[in-house]
Amino acid sequence: MFDSVLFISSAVLVLVGSLGVLFIKENLMHACVSLLTALFGVAGLYATLGADFLAATQLVVYVGGVVILMLFGIMLTGGGTSNENKFGIEKVPGMGSVKTYIVAGVNVLVISLIVIRIMANVMKDYKAVPLPPYESTVEKLGTLLVTDHVLAFEISSILLLGALVGAAIIARPTRRTN
Amino acid sequence: MNESLISYLSQFEGHQAFVKMASEMAGTDLTSTISFMIYLAAVLAVVGVMATIGGLGTYAERKISADLQARQGPNRVGPFGLLQMLADGVKMILKEDIIPRDADKFMFVIAPLLCIVGVFGSLAVVPFSSGFILTDLNVGVFYLLGISSLVGVGIFIGGYSSNSKWSMLGGMRGASQIISYEIPVTLSIIMIVLIAGGMSFGTLISGQGGFPHQWYLFHNPFTFIGFFVYFIGALAETNRAPFDLPEAESELVSGYHTEYTGMRFAFFALAEYIEVFVVCGVAVALFLGGYKVPFDLGNGEAFSALPPIIGKNIGQFLQLGSFFTKTLALYYVVIWIRWTLPRLRVDQLMTLCWKYLTPIALFNLLMVAVWVYAFEGQSMFELFSSMGSGSSGGH
Question: Contact B111/B157 with Cβ under 8 angstroms?
């Protein structure tokens, strides 16, 4: 019963949050808060499936980091501005040219084909089986990360180091040459 | 499943007999229903006690500050002014609930809720004693870091939605301060996780003992430094002086909650005081031995003459006493620091975090890893005692 309560509430959070992201147009901040709701719900879904470490990581990375950065970005660029120009006429933002439509259409086609192909297997062999008994994933993840997947681990650390150095260079006060 | 209140209770025959009897009377298996009821009661108790501690925190803050400044402090309402908290609460509830006309109403309303949800969510893993922990998650510390970052979002949204320059500046300062100081705090926590070999509070505390020389604080010189890094970072994360820039009253009126009145303001204040308790509790659990009682009195085996249900529970109460004593002592230190040190400037704040605390924490982490590898996880005192026994010719 606990599982279904957790699942239903998380699923409702995800649905409400994602629909909010889609349909809140007038204020980006509100859309960002509903994105927060959706990400929180995803953490709940992970917890329902017994992936405790993934759920906590979802909280730390998205709720603690990404959403705050998005809020900062929206605030500093003025997310609440209206769509009217100075003459009071509603601006419709440019939606691209024929070329972009064609590229986007091909993309949608390819991605949906892939998704359908993946989903088909799942749907055909779908059987409602009870979840396996709960066990901790932390130890296994830790062991795998420094044994089998150590290359991916190190490469992602190099990526992060690059991001850090780049941020330091951007934030550094510019040197005056003269 | 995880260790929790239920798994502690279900070791007693009385609990099992009660569940069996209730199930037979109802005709169905009531185990999960009864667990749910017990959880509900425990959660309500924890929230009630913590809200009271938060309220008493405001009282303690005034009394201690008065003491440090040679004043009297609140002394009119009730004995020693103890009921000041209730008077404040009644005042807060009766205040007019004002939402500024140009404020963003939706965000203005949810900001205090986010703060309080983040803090109350983190109470789920705070280890009050070995039996009384709501749930001992395998990712306990990590979960606590994640859920308490909601507080930062709440502070930022509160500042943004008030549509006031002071609130906005306060909110920005609060959010940037919280995400900056999360780094040294997290690195210091990882250091202890490395020694203990687990992220659940049960594992973290079981590696320590009741006496100070068994605490992780004195495990090696680097954890000793790491404790202070953690404590300074935690002060900054909870926006306490000398890092209370988000609510610096001389510059920003009162920062991100300038426009809030009544219970919404009280939620912000309550969240802050409870968060101070939580970070002090985590410091105690990580560095100061947690709920461990000297001579292993906590597991109740010393009271084996008594029936097990009484002996065990005496042990639990000793553990609760140990945890709360240490945590409230740290709480006192937090208040003491607030009324002693002047506030930092913004640039000093960021310099302290990025140029001092973060490198120190990184170095500590590295050196603790080396220590654990070189000495196989032994503490300083274990090394000294083994050296002593070696030189006395025992081998």
Answer: yes
Tokens for B381, please give them.
Answer: 């005192």
Helical H segments across B27-104, by residue range: 31-68, 84-94
Number of domains in chain A: 2
- CATH number for the domain that contains residue A46: 1.20.120.1200
pLDDT tier at A79 (50, 70, 90 boundaries)?
A: low
Q: How many CB pairs under 8 A join A and B?
A: 81
Interface check A51 vs B, CB under 8 A? no
Closest CB to B137 among A52, A57, A58: A52
Please judge whether B145 and A60 are an interchain contact, meaning their C-beta atoms are less than 8 angstroms apart: yes
Give residue-wise pLDDT tens across range B360-372.
999 999 998 898 8
Relative to beta strand B135-136, strand B3-4 is antiparallel
Give chain A positions within 8 Å (CB) of B110: 33
B288-344 pLDDT, tens digit per residue, is 888 888 877 767 676 667 776 777 778 788 888 888 888 999 999 988 888 888 888
Q: How many CB atoms lie within 10 A of CB A155?
A: 11
Q: Are residues A74 and A9 in the same domain?
A: yes
What residues in B contact A27, CB-CB < 8 Å? 104
Domain C-terminal end among A80, A108, A123: A80
Tokens 């970070």 belong to residue: B279
Q: Which domain holds residue A70?
A: 1-80
A93 confidence band (pLDDT: 50, 70, 90): low
Residue A122 lies in a domain: no
- Token couple for B364: 């500590």
ipTM entry = 0.76
* A2 part of contact set with chain B, CB < 8 Å: yes
Q: What is the pLDDT of residue A108?
A: 94
Residue A33 and residue B182: Cβ atoms within 8 Å?
A: no
Mark yes or no for CB contact A29/B107 under 8 Å.
yes
pLDDT in tens, B114-154: 888 889 888 888 888 877 788 787 888 888 888 888 888 88
If one counts every other C-beta atom within 10 angstroms of the C-beta of residue B121, the result is: 17
Contacts of A134 in chain B (CB under 8 A): 1
Task: Specify whether A75 is located in the same domain as A149.
Answer: no
**pLDDT at position A59:** 85
Rg (CA), chain A: 22
Residue A136 sits at the chain B interface (C-beta within 8 Å): yes
Provide, as residue numbers in chain B, all residues whose Cβ is less than 8 Å from the Cβ of A29. 104, 107, 157, 160-161
Q: Is residue A170 part of a domain?
A: yes
